[in-house]
Specification:
Pfam families: CusF_Ec
Strand order of the largest sheet: 1-2-3-5-4
Keywords: Signal
InterPro entries: CusF_Ec, CusF_sf
CATH topology: OB fold (Dihydrolipoamide Acetyltransferase, E2P)
Helix content: 25-40%
CATH architecture: Beta Barrel
Largest sheet: 5 strands, mixed, barrel
Order of helices and strands: HEEEEE
Organism: Bradyrhizobium pachyrhizi
Number of helices: 1
Structural class: alpha+beta
Protein name: RND transporter
CATH superfamily: Copper binding periplasmic protein CusF
Number of domains: 1
Radius of gyration: 18 Å
Number of strands: 5
CATH class: Mainly Beta
Distance between the termini: 46 Å
Shape: globular
Length: about 100
């Protein structure tokens, strides 16, 4: 009986990891860096639909960045994947990386 509980727990844990990875991937938005303004802590991104932000159409937008160090990871013209969230002051990029 104890072994069955351990197996069930392991299976539930594996499922949770798989679902978590799928949700994290779904939140990633594909885009291209159009402009970087390090002084203002902003980045302009041309991107496809951003379902996680309620945007169904591709567009180009200026985003704030959560951490100014994120701007040093990319340059204009880079294809990127990023995550953003909506807040009181607009949209903020919380993570960004060059697309693979």
């Amino acid at each position: 009986m104890n072994r069955m509980i351990q197996l069930a727990g392991a299976g539930a844990f594996a499922l949770a990891l798989t679902l978590g990875a799928a949700l994290a991937q779904a939140a990633a938005i594909n885009g291209e860096v159009k402009k970087i303004d390090e002084g203002a802590g902003k980045i302009t991104l041309k991107h496809g639909p951003a379902k996680s932000l309620g945007m169904d159409e591709p567009m180009t937008m200026v985003y704030r960045v959560k951490d100014p160090a994120l701007l040093k990871q990319v340059k204009v013209g880079d294809k990127v994947q990023f995550e953003a969230q909506e807040g009181d002051g607009g949209y903020t990029v919380t993570a960004i990386q060059k697309a693979k």
